[in-house]
Amino acid sequence: MGISTWAKKKIQAWLEIVPPPTEQAITIMRGHTQEIEVIRSQLWYQGDAEELYQFFHQTETGTGAFWATSPSTSKIRKIHSGLPAVIADTLAYIVKSDLDKVDAPPEWEEIAESIGFTELVGQSVCDGLVSGDGAFKISIDKTLTDYPIVEFVSGDKVELEQKRGILRAVIFRTMYTVKSSRYVLHERYSRGRIETTLTDASGNAVPLSVVPELADIPPVVEFAGDYIMAVPVMFYADKKHPGRGKSIFSGGKSQCFDALDEVISQWLDAVRAGRVVKYIPEGLVPKDPKDGSLKSVSSFGAEVIQIRSSLNEGVGEKLEISQPDIKYEAYVSTYTQALLMCLQGLVSPATLGIDLGKMSSAEAQREKKDVTGDTRNTITAALEKILPRLIDAVLRTYENMCDGSPEEHDVTVSFGEYGAPDFDTRVETVGKAAAYGVMSTQTQVDELWGSSKDDNWKAEEVSRIKSEKGILETREPSVGDGP
After folding, report:
1. How many domains does the chain have?
2. Which of 125, 206, 292, 441 lies in the 20 to 30 Å Cα band around 106?
3. 49 in Cβ contact with 60 (< 8 Å)
4. How far apart are alpha carbons 337 and 343 in whole angstroms?
5. Is 429 domain-assigned?
């Protein structure tokens, strides 16, 4: 022990300083498994209030969540906003619409039309954002089509087999029911091989012939080419479940959606409780002329006629109308803040057509729209890596179907610019740059027309503009040229 360590311990003992324990064990229990979280995100997207009520009452009782604590026998109307589905569908539409160009071999055009490539991309984006991840599944069925069949399977039916971060296989799970007995089909897609097994409810392997529609499927299929006939899709990594994707509705977003539904439900309940109440004296209620019984008063276009006056001195019969004072401003403010918490980090209100201009300037609204662009860029950056691998795998599968030798293909996928300025804005911007002399004629034409015109048209346009300005292009003189 050195002198400094000895002196330090003596000072700590003199000052009565107790050092912290060297080891402190902390135990944290996970709330849900990855499968349960995927189911919860899918229920948020589907937006069925009854299914949300059943799920939360079974899984999150005691958490204080609105959907878990609201009683089923109460007259409170439980309303779901439907916002999760709007967010996912809007992002999927933006990305699908921005799919600009696919550089692939010529045969890809017919295959893309056969599989509905653009719509398939939109489905993968929507399901991938909701479930967290998933995978494209490539299969062959010549009785249906002469081209490969491509499907997208969401993350709740996909298992990724990885080793040290390297994908080894993709396992697809499909449920089958035969005579009230449930079976699970496992299709393991690895490099050059597909293994198919069937298990019962206890997890024991059973013959594929137990399910009639699977009787003709071979247990093992091998194919040429060192590739996997499946491509995983993931946009955000899940830190809680390594190797799996994260849903945009997981974590705190689920609590935000729950809070928004609570605000909406309370708001509508207050409106229902705040209806106009009419107190009608018995003497003013219409009576049946046959037997003198009281008749109901219609709330629409009702006219109450006083037939006789009261015999009491100074007392008259009159209608009394009462309506509670509902604090609508407080509900609107709470709803707005809950809505912004749901949209934070995903999309801007302007993208969904929500007008919040009264609370912020137009410039602030334009800046908030950058949030949608950031989310869109994250998705497209992932797709620019995923889709080329998918197209390459589909082309190799097609070559196997044609009894050819599958080869690796050089494929690139690009997306257009999101929120690009309109033509008038581009003309104004390019015109100012040209006036200041900071942009060449070629650059002006490229910025103005973008990819809407081909290179030959742009070259002719540049020559025309230079000709109208009196700019002549000549060959640069070299040494030895005469005067």
Report:
1. 1
2. 125
3. no
4. 10
5. yes
